[in-house]
Write a structure and sequence with these properties.
The chain is mostly beta strands. The chain has a single domain, classed as 6 Propeller (Neuraminidase). The protein is 4% helix and 49% strand. It contains one helix and eleven strands; from the N terminus they run E-E-E-E-H-E-E-E-E-E-E-E. Strands 1-2-3-4 form a four-stranded antiparallel sheet. The N and C termini lie far apart (32 Å). Keywords: Repeat. It holds the Pfam family NHL. GO terms for molecular function: ubiquitin protein ligase activity. This is NHLC4 protein.
C-alpha cells in the first residue's frame, strides 16, 4: 500500500482501502490483493478518500479532488452516484436500508443520499 487512507470491510470477508497515490485496492480475507479499481475499471481517480461497500457488494468511493462519489459494481462499468453538491467528500458509510452518508469536510457537515 502507498499511503493508505480509508478502509471498509467487504461482506465476503475482505476489505477495501483508498490510497493517497490515487487508487483503491481490494483485498481478500487472507490479505492478498484481489484487484486495483483503477486497473479493473480503467477509472482515473483524483484523490480517493472514503470507501464503503453496499449490501449488494458494490464498492463506493468518494473522490475529494473531483467532488464525486462513484459506485463500482462487481460486474459492469462504474456509475457516478453524486456529481454535484459536494465540496470535499471524505468519510462515507452505507446503511443496510440503502442510505449513503458522506462527511463533507468542505462544508463541515454530513450529507445523506438515498
Amino acid at each position: 500500500l502507498q499511503g493508505p487512507r480509508y478502509i471498509s470491510p467487504v461482506p465476503s470477508g475482505g476489505f477495501v482501502v483508498s490510497e493517497e497515490c490515487g487508487d483503491v485496492k481490494v483485498f481478500m480475507s487472507s490479505r492478498k490483493l484481489l484487484c486495483s479499481l483503477s486497473s479493473k475499471y480503467g477509472h482515473q481517480f483524483g484523490n480517493p478518500a472514503g470507501v464503503c461497500v453496499d449490501r449488494e457488494g458494490s464498492i463506493l468511493v468518494a473522490d475529494e479532488q473531483r467532488r464525486t462519489v462513484h459506485l463500482f459494481p462487481e460486474h459492469g462499468a462504474p456509475i457516478c452516484l453524486v456529481s454535484t453538491g459536494l465540496r470535499r467528500p471524505a468519510g462515507m458509510a452505507c446503511s443496510s436500508s440503502g442510505h449513503l452518508f458522506v462527511a463533507d469536510t468542505g462544508e463541515n457537515c454530513v450529507k445523506v443520499f438515498k
